[in-house]
């Protein structure tokens, strides 16, 4: 009877250990899936941020070019002595 009790304890213990290992594998698999999903979202966000930065740089350069053009035109008008008010 004692041998049978010990055998039952060993069987239950082995079953419990197997179940815990199996549960750990499932949990690890689930966490790995979530981690991969987060990495994908992070890559997507990084790509969107990169596109936003490129658009911002483009708008900023366009504004600088507009300012340079405006300054150049003002200098040209001043240099030529042209004044729209004098022509009226």
From TrEMBL:
This is Alpha Spectrin. Residues 1-19 form the signal peptide. Keywords: Signal. The keyword Signal applies. It comes from the Eukaryota.
């Amino acid at each position: 009877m004692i041998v049978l009790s010990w055998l039952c304890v060993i069987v239950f213990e082995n079953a419990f250990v197997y179940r815990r290992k199996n549960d750990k594998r499932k949990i690890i698999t689930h966490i790995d899936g979530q981690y991969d999903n987060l990495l994908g979202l992070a890559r997507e966000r990084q790509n969107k941020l990169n596109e936003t930065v490129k658009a911002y740089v483009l708008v900023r350069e366009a504004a600088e070019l507009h300012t340079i053009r405006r300054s150049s035109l003002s200098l040209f008008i001043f240099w030529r002595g042209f004044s729209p008010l004098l022509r009226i």
